Amino acid sequence: MSTAVRVVARLTAKADKIEDLKAILLSIIEPTRNEPGCKRYELLQNNAEPADFTFVEEWESGAALDAHMKAPHLTAALGKLGDLLGAAPDIRRYTTLR
């Protein structure tokens, strides 16, 4: 039986690249929500620190998440992030315990 997986992924933009990063992150939401196994995929922007973006995700299984990490729209977006980020992404994978 597969176990649901949740992800919290935090990305921080350079001060002068906030809108550039935001545009890329917004562009991957709909294609990701249409992926098999995607149960939840939300992008949050910190009100106090606009350069701080966080994805909150829920996947049916680790296999679905692994497939997402190889999806063309995601790999293309990741390839554009290098000079936009002020820090390395903080991506954490959690197992749902219910």
The total count of strands amounts to 4
Tell me the helix content.
25-40%
The arrangement of helices and strands along the chain is EHHEEHHE
Quickly count the helices: 4
The main pleated sheet reads as: 4 strands, antiparallel
Indicate the multimeric state: single chain
Distance between the first and last residues' Cα = 14 Å
Report strand %: 25-35%
Strand order of the largest sheet: 2-3-1-4
- Chain-averaged pLDDT: 95
**Which spans of ≥5 residues are poorly predicted at pLDDT below 50?**
none
SS content category? alpha+beta
Global geometry: globular
Tell me what you see in this structure.
- The chain has helices spanning 18-27, 29-33, 62-69, 72-78; strands spanning 5-12, 38-45, 52-59, 90-95.
- The chain is α+β, with helices and mostly antiparallel strands and 98 residues long.
- A four-stranded antiparallel β-sheet has the order 2-3-1-4.
- A hairpin with a 6-residue loop joins strand 2 (38-45) and strand 3 (52-59).
- It is globular and about 40 Å long.
- The mean pLDDT is 95.
Keywords:
98 residues; 31% strand; four-stranded antiparallel sheet; alpha+beta; 4 strands; 4 helices; globular
Summarize the structure.
The chain has four helices and four strands; from the N terminus they run E-H-H-E-E-H-H-E. With 98 residues, it is an alpha+beta fold.
